[in-house]
Design a protein that fits this description.
It contains 3 helices and 12 strands. It is of the alpha/beta class and 202 residues long. α2 links the parallel β6 and β7. α1 packs across α2.
């Protein structure tokens, strides 16, 4: 009789880490492709006619800004998002060696999340899509792990994108960052968050 192979605790942890990494990369790829697909099917072009003034380059998508930390790609300028309410503070240094959890439960929320991920993914230790026990957010994939704001420690942050609240606001509560996007000002809250993270202020 062939005995089942015993897995050590270390092997189980490695397997779980590989599984989490796979799902994280897979979901981020889906979010990125959904953003690109929207641009194509809505008639938006890829950047071809660019105009540069100072550290800001106008592209067909929006703006590429040269900052002290590298390039930042946004839909709006700093002046365009002055009306977005921002509660709290968050710097790029706080991303170092952090696991970043992303919650985006709709197509529009995934578009906003994809812009955020593309701008900050190189600064974090790891980024992963998850579900949450917060009833305001749907879980579209039961294979994703469930995270709660109350269980996060100093090694992680969670960003929750909400496009159903009807307001433009960013609120930082502990280790959780709530990004509320309104239909009429879509993407402004995400850009407001990015400007603050990259220390760009009026």
């Amino acid at each position: 009789m062939k005995l089942a192979r015993f897995e050590s605790r270390g092997e189980k942890e490695k397997k779980e880490k590989r599984r989490s990494l796979f799902w994280g990369i897979f979901i981020i790829l889906i979010m990125t492709l959904s953003s690109v697909g929207y641009a194509i099917f809505s008639g938006e072009k890829t950047a071809t006619n660019e105009q540069t003034e100072g550290n800001i380059t106008k592209t067909d998508y929006g703006y590429r800004i040269n900052t002290d930390y590298g390039f930042l790609n946004t839909k709006f300028t700093l002046e365009n998002v002055s009306d977005v309410v921002f509660k709290g503070s968050l710097t790029l240094d706080e991303f170092q060696n952090k696991v970043i959890y992303i919650i985006a439960d709709s197509t529009e929320a995934k578009r906003a999340a994809s812009e955020f991920v593309l701008n900050v993914q190189t600064y974090a230790y790891r980024m992963q899509s998850v579900c949450t026990d917060n009833p305001d957010y749907l879980c579209e994939d039961e294979n994703l792990p469930v995270k709660s704001c109350s269980e996060l420690d100093d090694t992680s942050l969670m960003f929750l994108f909400n496009t159903k609240a009807g307001k433009s606001e960013v609120e930082i509560l502990g280790k959780c960052v709530y990004i509320y996007e309104s239909e009429e000002n879509f993407m402004k809250s995400t850009d407001k968050l990015l400007f603050n993270i990259f220390n760009l202020k009026q």
